[in-house]
């Protein structure tokens, strides 16, 4: 026991004398508290020692609440490096780190951990696990702690501004980086999950200090449980308020779907209310904004929609608008309406689905539609109208009435007459975005 005691004292004294020479650049002066087993010391050259101890080792930083312990320890004075081997634990006022092995570089206050690594942030209760981790403590010009993890780590991440019971982000990725208590980056097969949404991308950034995030590469955001919306794009941005998602935007080949509609454009953004889409907007040039419900497709230079409770109630198109329907799958030419501005209103059915109830076009408005005639079986009549404003009303079974307001004209071809080519209008818009409604039009 005396030899062990002498080793402990010698180790502690030598380590402190070596470190103290350059103390102003350090934040930790290590003092050994206990070496429970056998110790060994090798003098590499005058004044340079390598020291080893086992049997349970504990140490601390002089004058601060930082402690270390492990099954065994090695100190290399020329490298200013301490190795903690076997059940290594490092604790300070900010974190607790557990690993199979850890290396502590005192020169730049860098801690490297390997094997079954678990790091707990005491301030935020964030937790990271993985095969390896580098922890950079605050020292010199480094005014904020940083962490780097590779090898498919996982994190349960919170901000220091969150309450103790705030829901965390569950993050998985090939690699992660954290700065301070509010910023995180992840790369390679990133997934972020919460109860209100989930996200996937090639890489991501979270800035909980401002309450937002950024997803890059094959990005996807999805409403959880019964929310049932999916938003994809090359990049996705989102914002949080009071720890809840309130806004999400996809850019580059943006595509949004729900149980009732689909929306595509260069850029699509949604307002999220109570975990559900409450409204949204779409615009772009390379991908013309296009929205499709069960049987109707509307395109325009830009689109806006109202969907309280994620139930579509109104869709507005601005600039070169065009709406088309195929309520009768037996017809080749579809009904359509166009104008400078177009407003589509939807009502909920008994089955809680949204159906088109009114469609209004204003400014150089035009409409082409079929009119069934019960007295003339066969092909329906065809009407082509132009006016300042055209309004069409619908029942759940199809078109009911069309009104032309202001200066207008038109032509009507009776049912049974040979169908001429449809008038030249806006280019046809594909309607294969969603499956057409199976409900046939009712012929009076």
- Average pLDDT works out at 85
**What number of domains?**
1
SSE succession:
HEEEEEEEEEEEEEEEEEEEEEEEEEEEEE
Query: How many helices in DSSP terms?
Result: 1
Q: What's the end-to-end separation, in Å?
A: 106 Å
> Do you know the CATH topology?
lipopolysaccharide transport protein A fold
CATH superfamily: Lipopolysaccharide (LPS) transport protein A like domain
- Could you give a short account of the major beta sheet? 29 strands, antiparallel
CATH architectural grouping:
Sandwich
List low-pLDDT spans: 1-26, 429-444
Strand portion, in percent?
over 45%
Short description:
With about 450 residues, the protein is mainly β. Helix content is about 5%, strand content about 60%. It starts with a helix and ends in a 31-residue tail after the last strand.
Question: Which key terms come to mind for this protein?
Answer:
444 residues, mainly beta, lipopolysaccharide transport protein A fold, 29-stranded antiparallel beta sheet, 4% helix, disordered N terminus
What topology does this entry show?
Blueprint: H1 2-20, E1 30-35, E2 39-45, E3 48-53, E4 57-61, E5 67-70, E6 72-76, E7 81-91, E8 95-105, E9 110-121, E10 127-136, E11 146-150, E12 154-157, E13 169-172, E14 175-179, E15 183-193, E16 197-207, E17 212-223, E18 230-241, E19 244-257, E20 262-273, E21 276-283, E22 290-292, E23 296-299, E24 302-306, E25 314-325, E26 335-348, E27 354-371, E28 381-395, E29 398-413
Antiparallel strand pairs: 1-4, 2-3, 3-6, 4-5, 5-7, 6-7, 7-8, 8-9, 9-10, 10-11, 10-12, 11-14, 12-13, 13-15, 14-15, 15-16, 16-17, 17-18, 18-19, 19-20, 20-21, 20-22, 21-24, 22-23, 23-25, 24-25, 25-26, 26-27, 27-28, 28-29
């Amino acid at each position: 026991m005396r030899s062990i005691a002498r080793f402990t004292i010698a180790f502690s004294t030598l380590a402190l004398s070596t470190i103290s020479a350059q103390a102003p650049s350090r934040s930790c002066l290590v003092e050994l508290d206990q070496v429970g087993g056998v110790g060994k010391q090798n003098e590499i050259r005058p004044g340079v020692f390598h020291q080893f101890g086992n049997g349970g080792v504990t140490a601390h930083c002089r004058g601060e609440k930082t402690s270390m312990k492990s099954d065994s320890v090695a100190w290399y004075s020329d490298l200013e490096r301490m190795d903690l081997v076997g059940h290594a634990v490092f604790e300070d006022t900010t974190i607790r780190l557990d690993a199979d092995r850890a290396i502590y570089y005192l020169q730049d206050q860098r801690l490297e951990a390997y094997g079954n690594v678990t790091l707990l942030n005491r301030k935020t209760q964030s937790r990271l696990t993985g095969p390896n981790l580098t922890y950079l403590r605050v020292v010199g010009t480094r005014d904020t702690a940083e962490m780097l993890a590779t090898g498919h780590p996982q994190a349960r991440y919170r901000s220091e501004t969150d309450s103790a019971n705030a829901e965390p982000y569950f993050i998985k990725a090939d690699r992660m980086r954290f700065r301070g208590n509010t910023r995180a980056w992840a790369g390679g097969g990133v997934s972020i999950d919460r109860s209100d949404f989930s996200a996937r991308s090639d890489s991501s950034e979270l800035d909980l200090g401002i309450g937002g995030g950024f997803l890059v590469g094959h990005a996807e955001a999805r409403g959880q449980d019964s929310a049932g919306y999916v938003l994809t794009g090359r990049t996705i941005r989102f914002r949080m308020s009071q720890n809840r998602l309130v806004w999400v935007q996809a850019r580059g080949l943006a595509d949004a779907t729900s149980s009732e509609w689909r929306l595509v454009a260069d850029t699509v953004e949604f307002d999220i209310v109570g975990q559900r889409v409450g409204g949204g907007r779409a615009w772009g040039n390379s991908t013309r904004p296009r929205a499709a419900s069960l049987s109707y497709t509307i395109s325009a230079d830009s689109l806006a929609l109202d969907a309280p409770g994620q139930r579509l109630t109104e869709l507005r198109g601005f600039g070169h608008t065009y709406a088309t329907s195929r309520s009768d799958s037996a017809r080749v030419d579809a009904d359509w309406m166009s104008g400078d501005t177009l407003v589509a209103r939807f009502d909920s059915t008994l089955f809680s689905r949204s159906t088109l109830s009114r469609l209004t076009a204003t400014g150089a408005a035009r409409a082409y539609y079929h009119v069934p005639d019960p007295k003339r079986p066969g092909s329906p009549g065809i009407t082509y109208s132009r006016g300042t404003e055209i309004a069409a009303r619908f029942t759940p079974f199809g078109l009911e009435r069309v009104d032309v307001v202001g200066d207008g004209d038109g032509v009507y071809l009776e049912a049974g007459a040979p169908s001429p080519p449809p008038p030249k209008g806006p280019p046809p818009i594909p309607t294969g975005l969603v499956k057409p409604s199976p409900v046939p039009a009712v012929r009076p």
